[in-house]
């Protein structure tokens, strides 16, 4: 067992790339010279030296080309820490200010699976340093070297923890830039369990920018185009090309690391660093089974790796939350809690009945995507919302998720709807159009959408105009969002959703290029930059959309009149808006809606009561609301209600008994709260329930087994803790 030295615990393959094979043990690699721990052929600081008048050096833990890591003791606190210094000849005021800003940002990282940074400063000799928690254990690189590889069961919890840590960092705007096995540490300080720690966030790059760099301030940007930083074995294509990077670079490097953990070697290994980079840029992603055939990886795992390692960043997962969701599904597969009845690979955007239910358990929301909004009585299809993060933009797409479930139910009209769409292929994106005009102050002079010879819709967008993202759903599934730029080909009968860019706040007239039939749904994710002018632009140029999602707390009663200008809405999502239930009663199409999300709405009871007996509503999301027994009774009168989300909303046993009389309810998400397992007897009366997502906090194993026996045969059950927002933890049948 070794002490933390993440920079030096490199994989065997990386050492081979460097030209020297270095055993790790308790020795470190230093300028092609052997050096026992605690000594150095050229250390920046000696044992017992004092750094910055605060830290006494106890030993050298490791040393590399950029600096050294020491075990130190804080003189005042008498606490041992790890201290990392960087080699520098000089440190300009600008570089110091940048170091200070980024170090302060990194110090904000407070996650169980991220090594804690305590302090930073400038040591003697003008060397920047920072101190962090002292870890005892081994790096993932060392474990891979020792074990050759990790089993899938062993790797999943490790990489789930890493994904959670990086997700936390990304939400704070911090990109790691150098994810690799050497920077994942398996800490043994806790005698009861092994804790995964992600180490070495960003400061290494920060400290290696030269003070006299001729590019000046531009070169000192937090994430720079033109600056290559990272390890060749784990470097993303955009990183290798010196392009600007974002969180998706970490996702690619994470994929390389996961691949190495499962097979014992990275996906791309060339004869030298340059050859390896070329492989990242141009070679096809290898299959896990090709590298390690004896492991028998499930097809779902192959799909996850393929998406993690996509050459184009927009083709990868867009957030680590998505990665964690798919890793959870694979864990369910391994445990036999999701059964597969065919050899068809489980797709990354899963489409089995169990996975559709899992998405319900995770999001608590079902969104209707209607083939014919006005005449939908026997001709309905449903989709699930999926969310992607690309930079600062939160994407919410209408994705196809309940079709298989409806087929299982043999719901009339489903097959007819599928036949009407025919065998449609997915859309494809081609190179940007060079003859498109740029958007300006005046409305665009041409339509964005035309048809090609195959009957597909061709979306051609203005050059340099950031309109947003397109996603669409067909009978064959949901297509992930793509940037609305260049030319995009979409199947003729696909339902297209536009996630509007905040860049249109000052140029809403760019929406004029769409015709009424071009866009089915619109999403406005404008929490911090809400602009009434943009909403007015959507109302003006896209008044015939059928689905509208507004994720903004700035949307309030002032905009209800504008909402009434949408004449075809059948799906409305106002989660966490500031619209009051009394305000929403003034929405003219309220009783025409098929899907409604009023999560967190004050006076939601007024809306529920106003819809009493409504025959249109199929899916309603009422999380985080104050509800009473009368509201449950009113919901039971919705004759076609099939999906209901009551996450974190108040309920009673009497209210649940009233709700059990709902004639078609088959999917329910509920938080029992203090009622806990006492709801089991009442849930037995939900005779048509096919999927239940329930908070089982405080339940015994006996309670869970009793619930399983109580519900209708074949009902899928998902449990989660007090907060459903973190998704489900376990499913049992």
Q: Write the CATH homologous superfamily of the domain at 2-334.
A: Transferase(Phosphotransferase) domain 1
Portion of residues in helices?
Answer: 25-40%
CATH topology of the domain at 2-334: Transferase(Phosphotransferase), domain 1
The rough form would be described as globular
Please tally the β strands and state the result: 32
- Taking the alpha carbons of the first and last residues, their distance comes to 41 Å
- The order of strands across the largest sheet is 20-19-22-23-24-25-26-27-28-29-30-31-32
Spans of at least 5 consecutive residues whose pLDDT stays below 50 are: 1-42, 203-228, 339-443, 721-733
CATH architecture of the domain at 2-334: Orthogonal Bundle
Number of helices: 23
The computed structural class is alpha/beta
Task: Describe the 3D structure.
The chain has 733 residues and is α/β, with parallel strands linked by helices. The protein has a domain at 2-334: Transferase(Phosphotransferase), domain 1, CATH 1.10.510.10. Helix content is 27%, strand content 21%. The protein has 23 helices and 32 strands. It has a 13-stranded mixed β-sheet, covered by helices on one side. Strand 6 (67-74) and strand 7 form a beta hairpin. Helix 4 packs antiparallel against helix 12 (320-334), helix 11 runs antiparallel to helix 12 and helix 20 (629-635) packs parallel to helix 21 (653-659). The longest helix is centred in the N-terminal third of the chain and has 20 residues, at 152-171. The model is unreliable at 1-42, 203-228, 339-443 and 721-733 (pLDDT under 50).
């Amino acid at each position: 067992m070794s002490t933390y030295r993440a920079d030096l615990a490199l994989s065997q393959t990386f050492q081979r790339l460097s030209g020297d094979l270095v055993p790790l043990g308790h020795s470190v690699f230093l300028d092609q010279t052997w050096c026992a721990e605690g000594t150095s052929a050229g250390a920046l600081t000696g044992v017992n030296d004092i750094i910055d008048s605060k830290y006494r050096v106890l030993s050298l833990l490791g040393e590399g080309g950029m600096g050294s890591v020491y075990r130190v003791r804080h003189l005042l606190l008498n606490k041992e820490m790890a201290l990392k210094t960087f080699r520098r000849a000089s440190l300009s005021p600008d570089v110091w200010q940048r170091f200070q800003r980024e170090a302060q940002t990194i110090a904000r990282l407070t996650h169980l699976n991220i090594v804690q940074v305590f302090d930073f400063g400038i040591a003697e000799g003008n060397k920047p340093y920072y101190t962090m928690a002292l870890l005892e254990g081994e790096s993932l690189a060392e474990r891979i070297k020792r074990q050759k590889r990790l089993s899938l069961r062993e790797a999943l919890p490790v990489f789930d923890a890493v994904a959670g840590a990086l997700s936390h960092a990304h939400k704070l705007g911090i990109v790691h830039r150098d994810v690799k096995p050497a920077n994942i540490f398996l800490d043994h300080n806790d005698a009861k369990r092994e804790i995964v720690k992600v180490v070495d966030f960003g400061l290494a790059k920060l400290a290696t920018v030269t003070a006299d760099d001729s590019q000046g301030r531009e070169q000192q940007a937090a994430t720079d185009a033109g600056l290559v930083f990272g390890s060749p074995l784990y470097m993303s294509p955009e990183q290798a090309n010196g392009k600007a990077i974002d969180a998706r670079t970490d996702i690619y490097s994470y994929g390389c690391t996961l691949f190495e953990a499962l097979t014992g070697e990275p996906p791309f290994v060339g004869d030298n660093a340059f050859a390896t980079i070329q492989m990242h840029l141009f070679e096809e992603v290898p299959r896990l089974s090709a590298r390690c055939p004896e492991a028998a990886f499930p097809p779902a795992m192959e799909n996850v790796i393929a998406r993690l390692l996509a050459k184009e960043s927009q083709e990868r997962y867009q957030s680590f939350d998505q990665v964690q969701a798919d890793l959870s599904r694979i864990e369910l597969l391994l445990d036999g809690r999701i059964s597969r009845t065919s050899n068809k690979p489980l797709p990354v955007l899963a489409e089995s009945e169990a996975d559709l239910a899992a998405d319900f358990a995770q999001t608590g929301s079902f969104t209707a995507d209607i083939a014919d909004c006005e005449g939908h009585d026997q001709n309905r299809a449903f989709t699930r919302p999926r969310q992607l993060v690309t930079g600062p933009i939160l994407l919410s797409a209408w994705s196809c998720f309940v079709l298989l479930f409806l087929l299982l139910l043999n719901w009339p009209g489903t097959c007819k709807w599928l036949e009407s769409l025919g065998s449609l292929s997915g859309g494809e994106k081609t190179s940007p159009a060079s003859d498109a005009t740029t958007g300006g102050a005046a409305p665009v002079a041409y339509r964005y959408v035309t048809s090609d010879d195959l009957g597909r819709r061709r979306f051609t967008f203005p050059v340099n105009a950031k309109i947003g993202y397109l996603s669409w759903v067909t009978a064959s599934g949901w297509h992930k969002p793509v940037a609305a730029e260049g030319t995009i080909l979409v199947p003729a009968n696909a339902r297209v959703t536009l996630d509007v860019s905040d860049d249109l706040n000052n140029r809403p007239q760019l929406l004029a290029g769409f015709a009424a039939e071009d866009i089915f749904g619109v999403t406005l994710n404008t929490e911090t930059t809400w602009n009434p002018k943009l909403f007015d632009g959507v109302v003006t140029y896209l008044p015939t959309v059928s689905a509208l999602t507004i994720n903004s707390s700035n949307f309030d009663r002032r905009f209800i009149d504008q909402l009434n200008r949408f004449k075809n809405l059948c799906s409305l999502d106002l989660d966490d808006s500031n619209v009051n239930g009394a305000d929403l009663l003034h929405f003219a199409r309220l009783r025409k809606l098929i899907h409604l999300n009023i999560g967190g709405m004050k006076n939601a009871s007024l809306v529920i009561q106003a819809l009493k007996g409504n025959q249109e509503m199929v899916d309603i999301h009422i999380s985080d609301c104050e509800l009473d027994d009368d509201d449950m009774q009113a919901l039971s009168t919705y004759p076609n209600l099939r999906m209901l989300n009551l996450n974190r909303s108040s309920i009673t046993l009497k209210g649940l008994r009233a709700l059990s009389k709902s004639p078609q309810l088959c999917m329910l998400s509920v938080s029992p709260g203090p009622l806990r397992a006492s709801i089991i007897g009442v849930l037995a009366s939900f005779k048509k329930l096919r999927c239940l997502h329930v908070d089982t906090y405080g339940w015994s194993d006996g309670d869970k087994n009793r619930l399983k026996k109580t519900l209708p045969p074949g009902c899928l059950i998902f449990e989660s803790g007090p907060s459903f927002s973190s998704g489900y933890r376990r499913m049992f049948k």
